Amino acid sequence: MIEDKKVKRVLVIGSGGREHAIVDALARSSRVAKIFCAPGNAGIADKAECVDISVTDIDDLARFAKDNNIDLTVVGPEAALAEGVADRFAEDGLAIFGPTREAARIESSKEFAKEIMERHGIPTASYRAFDNFDEALAYVKSRPLPAVVKYDGLAAGKGVVVAPTYEEAEAALRDMLLGAAFGKGRVVIEDFLAGPEFSFMCIVSGRKVYPLAIAQDHKRAYDNDEGPNTGGMGAYSPVPFVTDEIREKALKEVMQKTADALADEGIHYCGVLYGGLILTAEGPKVIEFNARFGDPETEVVLPRLKTDIYTLFESAVAGVDCPTSWNPETCLGVVLAAEGYPGKYAKGIEIEGTDKVSGDVLHMGTARKEGKLVSAGGRVMMITATGGNVAEARDRVMADIRKINAPGLFWRTDIGHQSI
Ligand code: AMP
Ligand code: GLY
Questions:
Q1: Which ranges of the chain have pLDDT less than 50?
Q2: Could you tell me where the DSSP H helices lie in 142-228?
Q3: What number of CA atoms fall less than 13 Å from residue 270's CA on the CB side?
């Protein structure tokens, strides 16, 4: 029997909008008494006690969890996973929701992800990996355009070049294999897939897969999907073009198959498996996997979750079933970013009017300075609202954004355009 008392103590690792959404969901739980967030941000501080420990300081995080009788730790960012936070917690017998360093390679190494998919027949673009520039160039020239060139390692969503010409593909290979811009120097080259993209996050516990609601992100900086790739400028959930039939196919042929593939290879996975999928003429295929909740998708998915999120996390850690139920309304969010992002941008931009917003304000990169709310990152905050459909939810968000005064921030006005 799951007890129904508010007694649980939870630590959330991270400091962005994703972690703000996780903290909000935990604050709605009937079982959670106290939430800590390391390091958190100015918005998270309203619902959690922020602790000044960096996400990669895994020894200090484990010590904090032990000293403060934390029942469960939830990991937000990939940097903490790649540092081995889940391995470190497991050594100390501390419960943690997030995959081990080895399991997180499904995100941190594109080549590892591609090999798993190839070995287990999980649909994705054909690819080859190279560390030699001349061989990479010869391969690119043997394939049709556009060419997709990916740096093999964590590059915060910025290590992918879709090159419409051979000259642009060559320049990307030069940068990644010969230049100093990246570091290690290994690339994956893959065929271009055409179709609309969507994000399918599932909670995975070994072979058990609990699907979360489908969302869609918007990676380009400006309206009409123009400008540079970013960490994500807005999202919404559900996504009307992903019908129940497509969703079932993606669940069975991609997400369940991947959970089974990892288990077959002796890798125990506990955490969110994020499928970045593309709906091609042949069905859903994988663009990338992440080993964590997506940002900004989490901010529009978790508000729709009716199931107690603590119970969901706890069930995944224990490996027991946990059915989920969802609010059918659409949740849509728009990111306010500092001008110049994803390139150089200013910090310390003053933000006023967030108290007048009717929807939700999720802080991504904020701080308090002399009592005032200021920006502290490129993506600063996300405004979300729910509505009967995508257009209604977006209208509500745009009306809320007009109440905010923050010269120096910009945002997209067309989030959800593929579904309106
Ligand atoms: P990734 O970091 O792998 O998610 O790639 C970033 C973005 O590049 C994706 O969201 C896609 O828009 C695009 N992209 C990556 N791989 C492909 C591909 N094989 N075909 C078409 N577009 C791609
Ligand atoms: N929204 C894409 C990501 O979290 O990587």
A1: 156-157
A2: 166-173
A3: 22
49 near 34, Cβ under 8 Å?
yes
Distance 159 CA to ligand 1 centre (A): 10
Give the pLDDT confidence of 81-130 residue by residue, as tens digits.
999 999 999 999 999 999 999 999 999 888 899 999 999 999 999 999 99
Contact 36, 74 (CB under 8 A): no
Confidence (pLDDT) at 154 = 57
Per DSSP, the residues of 376-405 read -SSEEEEEEEEESSHHHHHHHHHHHHTT-B
Buried b (16+ CB within 10 A) or exposed e, 290-325: bbbbbbbbbbbbbbbbebbbbbbbbbbbeeeebebe
Cβ atoms 291, 259 nearer than 8 A: no
| Residue 336, both tokens | 């306010």
Q: Please name which ligand lies nearest the alpha carbon of 146.
A: 1
Q: Quote the CA–CA distance of 194 and 400 in Å, as a whole number.
A: 34
How many C-beta neighbours within 10 Å does residue 404 have? 19
The position carrying tokens 């390679």 is 105
CA-closest residue to ligand 2 atom 5: 294
Q: Are 103 and 268 in contact (CB under 8 A)?
A: yes
Round to whole Å and give the CA distance between 329 and 390: 9
Quote the longest CA-to-CA distance of the chain: 63
Calculate how far, in angstroms, residue 377's C-alpha sits from the geometric centre of ligand 1.
24
Measured CA to CA, the distance from residue 298 to residue 236 in angstroms comes to 10
Query: Can you name the residues that pair with 305 across neighbouring β-strands?
Result: 326
- Say which amino acid occupies 208: K
pLDDT at 106: 96
308 DSSP assignment: -
Are residues 69 and 95 in contact, defined by beta-carbon separation less than 8 angstroms? Answer: no
Ligand 2, pocket residues at CB < 6 Å: 157, 217, 232, 290, 294-295, 297
Q: DSSP letter at 269?
A: -
Which ligand lies nearest to the CA atom of residue 294 in the structure?
A: 2
